[in-house]
Design brief:
The structure holds 2 protein chains of 2 kinds. By secondary structure, chain A is mainly α. Chain A has one domain: ABC transporter involved in vitamin B12 uptake, BtuC. By secondary structure, chain B is mostly helical. Chain B has a domain of 206 residues. Helix content of chain B is 79%, strand content 1%. In chain B, strands 1-2 form a two-stranded antiparallel ribbon. In chain B, helix 2 runs parallel beside helix 7 and helix 3 packs across helix 10. The radius of gyration of chain B is 20 Å and the shape is globular. The chains are: A mainly alpha, B mainly alpha. At the A-B interface, helix 4, helix 5, helix 10 and helix 12 of A face helix 5, helix 12 and helix 14 of B.
Chain lengths: 307, 312
């Protein structure tokens, strides 16, 4: 009951803040939501891996970068649109994820948590530097007509294409929730996430489930990589900020709470764009998220200490 | 057997390090300076690791020290050699303050927060245009330490390395070693043995950060300029980490060994492959974690042990 009241208060406050923003600076809210969609869509697969395999994949953003490169050169070679490439890229990265899991992460699952952290850190460096080695740090961009579509409401004009990220984030969040609660494989994955030993006793192949979840997460990231390519230029370091941002959002939502990532990303996206809207604070927008991550983690650790 | 071997190794290394400027040219000296810089950072990273805490914030404290040194010279007219000490004190002080907040965190939360703090430092320096010079950075017009002579600068870096080695040895030989190892192995049992966990962690964090700041000061004084991208470069986190892991963690000799090996390899690779030679570091980290978590020391150590086991 008390929890419900607190949720209601927070919801009421955020709705009030949103309305105030709409009246005062509508573009902040629009671009904030678009950024939030992108952040959430990238963070959700990482949340899946963290919730079930219990691995912080520091190579998460780099995986998206790899997918974007794969999509770019696939599109170049076959002359197709990145939107058509979403499905093939997802399949390719799923297979890639399965292989990476079997070759590296699986062997480190029993090792101390710190080893896993350093392992995925090493993978991140290896991925981004391998791309740097092959394609150098040159940027690549797909020239596309439809991404510059814009809309006018009253006297403000804004790009609408990025709303696709919002849609994708919502599909990811609710699709995954459906998968985890309604399907047999999904339920098995949740069981493994809660208690690997118990899951093994009732006959679930734990490592197969881990591999499957990891491959699924990479498939989603791969799809995002192809979609990301429509909007943004790609270069070897393009993915790494997303790793930290994703982790921040997951820590805010709480590990295992996938729909919560949506709410957290709105907060981050709007706050960043709010600072970006004013000239004196524009350069400080980047810092918001780093401060937020520290505040969230400290607050969580203090709360954990009390209870 | 093992101990004598590592003593001989240490002695040889020391003699080589001290005599190098008398016969080597400018380029080898420059390479040696780079390697020693990373070696010292690797040792400090390892010193904190001995308590079980992984820091990804080496670059952050290194950069803080670098800017403390250069700004104290440019803005406050401090003598060059004193600014290096000031860098150490400043970084240590910063670590002392943030240590109160973040040393209560464990495992991945500590690591992520150190990474984020490093970024925060970089952005702050980047954005305070009037004081720090913003993205273009600051240049020391006059008053570079030793007038920038290559030989003297070599001695300066060597002194920085000596501080790191001395601190690491102190950590190894005194009771700090037992406290940190106990914390790493099991915090509950460490606490019940009367170890004040927070105090020891704070000590380790402040000492390692101060040395990282000192090295930042030395770095910036030997090049005479600082930009946010140069001194907060991710290389200062990544390379020491890979070196310590490769050589073998929880020791002084491991990071030294790893730094010599990896430093020479990367110098060679840098000439061969200008783009993306860092891929080697990523692969080394992955391979070492998967197949030899104790690093190369494991190989050195296991052979005599195995032989003893069979003969006994």
């Amino acid at each position: 009951m008390i929890v419900k009241r607190r949720v209601a208060i927070i919801a009421a406050l955020s709705i009030a803040a949103m309305t105030a923003l709409i009246v005062w600076k509508p573009t902040v809210l629009i671009y904030g939501l678009q950024a939030a969609g992108l952040y959430a869509a990238v963070a959700i697969p990482m949340g899946l891996v963290l919730g079930i395999v219990h691995i912080v994949n520091l190579a998460h953003g780099e995986c998206m970068m790899l997918a974007a490169y794969a999509a770019y050169f696939g599109c170049k070679a076959l002359g197709m649109d990145p939107l058509v490439a979403i499905l093939p890229t997802a399949i390719v990265t799923a297979i890639f994820g399965w292989v990476v899991f079997q070759l590296t992460i699986r062997r480190a699952l029993k090792a101390p948590e710190l080893n896993q952290l350093i392992l995925t850190f090493g993978l991140a460096i290896a991925f981004s530097q391998a791309i740097n080695l092959i394609f150098t740090s040159q940027t690549y961009k797909m020239p596309l007509e439809y991404v510059s579509a814009s809309m006018d409401i009253g006297d403000i004009s804004f790009g609408v294409w990025s709303f696709v990220f919002v849609a994708v984030a919502i599909i990811f969040a609710y699709g995954l929730t459906f998968f985890l609660t309604k399907t047999m494989t999904g339920k098995a994955a949740v069981a493994v996430g809660q208690n690997p030993r118990g899951a093994a006793i009732v006959g679930i192949d734990v490592y197969r489930t881990y591999g499957l979840v990891f491959a699924l997460a990479l498939a989603l990231v791969g799809a995002m990589g192809a979609l990301f390519l429509t909007k943004s230029a790609i270069f070897p370091g393009v993915g790494s900020p997303f790793t930290m941002k994703s982790f921040c959002l997951i820590a805010m939502a709480g590990i295992g709470n996938i729909p919560g990532i949506l709410g957290a990303s709105v907060l981050l996206g709007v706050a960043e764009n709010f600072l970006r809207a004013f000239r004196p604070t524009r350069d400080w927008a980047e810092i918001v998220f780093f401060v937020l991550i520290i505040v969230v983690i400290l607050a969580r650790s203090l709360k954990g200490r009390k209870s | 057997m093992n101990r004598t071997a590592s003593r001989i190794f240490a002695l040889l290394f020391g003699v080589l390090a001290v005599t190098l400027p008398f016969f080597a040219g400018d380029y080898p000296l420059q390479v040696a300076r780079n390697i020693m810089m990373y070696m010292a950072l690797a040792i400090t990273w390892d010193m904190l690791l001995r308590s079980g805490q992984i820091s990804f914030g080496i670059a952050g404290l290194f950069g803080i020290g670098a800017y403390a040194a250069i700004l104290s010279v440019v803005r406050a007219g401090m003598p060059a050699w004193f600014s290096i000490l000031f860098a150490a004190i400043f970084a240590g002080g910063v670590a002392f303050v943030i240590g109160f907040l973040i040393l209560r965190l464990r495992a991945m939360y500590f690591s992520i927060v150190t990474l984020a703090l490093g970024e925060i430092f970089r952005i702050i320096i980047h954005n305070l245009h009037d004081f720090t010079g913003g993205p273009e950075g600051v240049v020391i017009q006059k008053g570079v330490v030793f007038g920038g002579k290559a030989n003297s600068l070599y001695w300066l870096v060597l002194a920085g390395l000596a501080v790191a080695v001395a601190a690491s040895t102190w950590f190894e030989k005194s009771k700090i070693h037992f406290a940190l190892t106990a914390i790493r192995n099991n915090e509950v049992s460490a606490k019940s043995s009367g170890i004040d966990i927070f105090r020891w962690l704070l000590l380790a964090f402040v000492v390692t950060s101060a040395i990282q700041g000192l090295l930042g000061g030395i770095f910036v004084q030997s090049y005479g300029f600082a930009t946010p991208d140069a001194v907060f470069s991710a290389d200062f986190t990544l390379l020491p980490l890979a070196m310590a892991l490769l050589g073998g963690v929880y020791s002084t000799t491991g990071p030294i060994f790893g730094a010599v090996l990896l430093g020479l390899v990367s110098e060679w690779l840098k000439l061969k492959i200008p783009y993306g030679h860092l891929v080697v570091y990523g692969i080394i980290i992955v391979v070492v974690i998967l197949f030899m978590p104790q690093g190369l020391r494991q190989l050195v150590r296991r052979t005599p042990h195995g032989a003893d086991g069979r003969s006994a």
